[in-house]
From TrEMBL:
Family under the similarity heading: Belongs to the short-chain dehydrogenases/reductases (SDR) family.
Name of the protein in its database record: Oxidoreductase
GO molecular function: oxidoreductase activity
Assigned keywords, A-Z: Oxidoreductase
Length: 265
């Protein structure tokens, strides 16, 4: 009996890193489950790209503030596609609000989307992978702010830092089932979340980033695809920074330095 086609479910795959990941995994031969929150047309564009590569695509709306019910979308997509081999927790949100001006609702909104949502979606996918009996891959998209803080992003940093440690616990507990769990921590990537959807990152100057520019969503997708593919089979519990060297400078320097003077001693 031939092996079943592998399936990946990717949250927030209507644009940016999620869309790039969907296309990259479809190129690798996976069928794709796509979630979206507000941009249905974006999700359909992603689905069309996947189908143009000869792979199946299913879409579903999900609002990760409506927990725990929202996580049922993972089960729904798995049923429609027949199984799940890869989960990419990519959907996210944040704030640009000073700590003293934040309200409890602001905090809860970001924590639900960026931490509790991946927690519950991860449970749904892992339980199915265990029942299938042939392992699986979970990739949690965090941020450089999993590792270092940023002014105005208290809830985001708290959520992404928590997701980084959650990733490590998941890796330890799920390893016996052949499931690897890793984090990918992007820096500034040219996506709608950073207001740069139609920007060629190679033409943008970022003096505070050692590589001198923002990243392309496809560069993040390539690392996710490695972790989801056969070459990543012995990698688990790690956080992979895709940031052009930003963490070596500090994220505040990455976005706030206006010259290259730091390059000279």
């Amino acid at each position: 009996m031939p092996d079943p086609t592998r399936v990946a479910v990717i949250t927030g795959a209507d644009s940016g890193i999620g869309r790039a990941t969907a296309v990259r995994l479809a190129e690798a031969g996976l069928d794709i489950g796509i979630t979206w929150h507000t941009d249905e047309e974006g999700a359909e564009r992603t689905a069309r790209e996947v189908r143009a590569l000869g792979r199946r695509a299913e879409t579903s709306r999900v609002d990760l503030t409506e927990l725990p019910a929202a996580a049922d979308t993972v089960d729904d997509l798995c049923e429609r596609l027949g199984r799940v081999d890869v989960l990419v927790n990519n959907a996210g949100t944040g704030t640009a609000t000073p700590f003293l001006d934040l309200g409890l609702d602001d905090l809860r909104h970001v924590l639900d989307v960026d931490l509790a949502g991946p927690f519950l979606c991860g449970q749904k996918a892992a339980r199915r992978m265990i029942r299938q009996g042939d392992g699986g891959r979970i990739v949690n998209v965090t941020s450089v702010h999993e590792h270092q803080p940023r002014v105005g992003a208290a809830p985001y940093c708290a959520a992404k830092g928590g997701l980084g440690l959650l990733t490590q616990v998941m890796a330890l507990e799920l390893a016996e089932h052949g499931i690897t769990v890793n984090a990918v921590a992007p820096g500034e990537i040219a996506t709608p979340m950073t207001g740069q959807e139609d920007t060629d990152p190679h033409t943008e100057r970022r003096p505070g980033v050692p590589l001198g520019r923002p990243g392309d969503a496809r560069e993040v997708a390539a690392v996710i695809a490695f972790l989801a593919g056969p070459d990543g089979s012995y990698v688990t519990g790690a956080s992979w920074s895709v940031d052009g060297g930003m963490l070596r400078m500090g994220p505040m320097a990455g976005s706030h330095l206006t010259s290259d003077d730091w390059r000279r001693p």
